[in-house]
Write a structure and sequence with these properties.
alpha+beta
């Protein structure tokens, strides 16, 4: 699935309704942009990111480890 959206003059991008519904994003919610090692970014919610980091932590990965 590919969605392409324009960016307004002040940097605003509208997240497509289908994606907002799938991610359960409501007006006023926050989203997180996470940069991957590849230079790409992913869009996630803070709760989803927190859950992912907790799983990594329990598996023995460290988010503080310097590369």
């Amino acid at each position: 699935m590919l969605h392409v959206r324009p960016i307004s003059g002040n940097g605003v991008v509208t997240i497509p309704k289908e994606i907002r519904e799938e991610m359960n994003i409501k007006p006023g919610d926050q989203i997180a942009f996470v940069k991957l090692d590849t230079g790409q970014y992913i869009l996630t919610t803070p709760d989803s990111l927190k859950n992912t980091l907790m799983v990594d932590h329990k598996a023995g990965y460290s988010v503080d480890k310097k590369q």
